[in-house]
Specification:
The chain is built from four helices and five strands, in the order H-E-E-E-E-E-H-H-H. Helix content is 31%, strand content 28%. The structure holds zinc ion (ZN).
Length: 198
């Protein structure tokens, strides 16, 4: 079952996650829960702390629509500064030009603990940077100006309150919640990185 996605500025999104040391069934289960939430939200990437689990694990979407897991990822190289319009499942409805690098080299483990090195460009490089940021306790809005960040924070705090109210009174505002839970419906692939692929 898909777990709800945590909304920024929840604290769990602002703390670095812990390294994975146990590559057993618990990791498989976590990956599967994360995938359920990712698919329900129609995202292109998700980090474990977005469903409240503080471990260094994320799913990353490839340009062909498939996904692979990254465990204990490390950013080895980042070159060619660019800005990229990004969004995030934890910051619903917000998209902003975010400073990133066009090319990256990363190292990570898969679910079996095997290390791999990957060089990526463009969209895949952005997804990797976005997810590694999450695992380091950062969200794309932390890379924006403080003015923009504060505006977005106000909106998100309001959204968190609305959702908490709906949870307490499920009959009130159901339509509302439906909108928020499926922001990408019929438009664009929403999460983690934006609009490039529409
Ligand atoms: Zn995100």
């Amino acid at each position: 079952m898909a777990k709800p996605i945590v909304i920024w500025p929840d604290k769990v999104l602002q703390r670095p996650t812990a390294k994975v040391t146990d590559f057993g069934p618990a990791l498989e289960k976590l990956l599967s829960e994360m995938m359920d939430s990712l698919r329900e939200a129609e995202g292109i990437g998700i980090a474990a702390n977005q469903i409240g689990v503080t471990l260094r694990v994320a799913w990353v979407g490839r340009p062909d629509g498939s996904f692979f897991e990254i465990v204990n990822p490390e950013l080895l190289e980042a070159t060619e500064a660019v800005t990229y319009e990004e969004g995030c499942l934890s910051v619903p409805g917000e998209f902003d030009d975010t400073p990133r690098f066009r090319k990256v080299k990363v190292r990570f483990q898969d679910r079996t603990g095997t290390w791999q090195t990957l060089e990526a460009e463009d969209r895949l490089a952005h997804v990797l940077q976005h997810e590694i940021d999450h695992l380091d306790g950062a969200v794309f809005v932390t890379r924006l100006s403080s003015l923009k960040r504060d505006l977005i924070r106000k909106k998100m705090v309001k959204l968190q309150k609305t959702r908490a109210d709906e949870h307490a009174h499920p009959h009130r505002g159901h339509d509302h919640r439906h909108d928020h839970d499926h922001p990408a419906h019929g438009h664009h692939h929403h999460e983690d990185h934006g609009r490039e692929d529409d």
